[in-house]
């Protein structure tokens, strides 16, 4: 299961009454490691003149890696996080997370980061099964 959804939240969702804030709070409490990483890169992105900030330290365990994968592989979760933090998230190698300023999306740095070449260059035998 990706998220820990309370019966009350599920009931509101079935009635079509869940807003972004409730959804993001569910993500925050369900995926605390992923939340910590995304909130950190988003905060650092906001504080720098650079186009993005990233985190590239492998997670301490498979449980934390799973949180990152669930958060960033789900369009709904990723989109909720992007709207909440006001960034565009990019993801490589099952643990490298970047938060791009919205104005940088589509630019040369962003295109280079999300390119197949960047993905291949960031591979290593140690990451084969991550």
What does this structure look like?
It is a single chain. The protein contains 7 helices and 3 strands, in the order αααβααββαα. The chain has about 130 residues and is α+β, with helices and mostly antiparallel strands. It is about 55% helix and about 10% strand.
What is this entry, summarized?
By secondary structure, the protein is of the alpha+beta class.
Please supply descriptive tags for the structure shown above.
single chain; 130 residues; alpha+beta; three-stranded antiparallel beta sheet; 7 helices; 54% helix
The tally of domains stands at: 1
The level of helicity is 40-55%
Distance between the termini: 19 Å
| Count of runs of 4 or more consecutive helical residues | 7
Spatial strand sequence of the major β-sheet: 1-3-2
The general outline is globular
Mean model confidence by pLDDT:
91
Helix/sheet category: alpha+beta
Portion of residues in beta strands equals 5-15%
Radius of gyration, in angstroms, nearest whole number: 15 Å
Mind summarizing the main beta sheet?
3 strands, antiparallel
Number of strands: 3
List the helices and strands and how they pair.
Elements (H helix, E strand, L loop, with lengths): L6 H8 L5 H11 L1 H16 L4 E4 L6 H12 L1 H11 L1 E6 L3 E6 L6 H6 L2 H6 L9
Antiparallel strand pairs: 1-3, 2-3
Helix pairs in contact: 2-3, 2-5, 3-4
């Amino acid at each position: 299961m990706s998220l820990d959804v309370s019966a009350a939240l599920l009931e509101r969702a079935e009635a079509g009454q869940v807003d972004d804030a409730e959804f993001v709070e569910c993500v925050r409490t369900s995926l605390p490691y992923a939340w910590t990483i995304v909130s950190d890169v988003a905060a650092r992105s906001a504080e720098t003149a650079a186009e993005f900030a990233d985190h590239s330290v492998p997670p301490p365990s498979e449980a934390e890696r799973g949180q990152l994968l669930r958060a960033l592989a789900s369009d709904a979760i990723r989109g909720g996080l992007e709207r909440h933090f006001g960034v565009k998230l990019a993801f490589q190698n099952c643990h490298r997370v970047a938060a791009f300023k919205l104005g940088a999306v589509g630019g040369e740095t962003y295109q280079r980061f999300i390119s197949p070449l960047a993905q291949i260059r960031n591979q290593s035998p140690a990451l084969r099964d991550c």
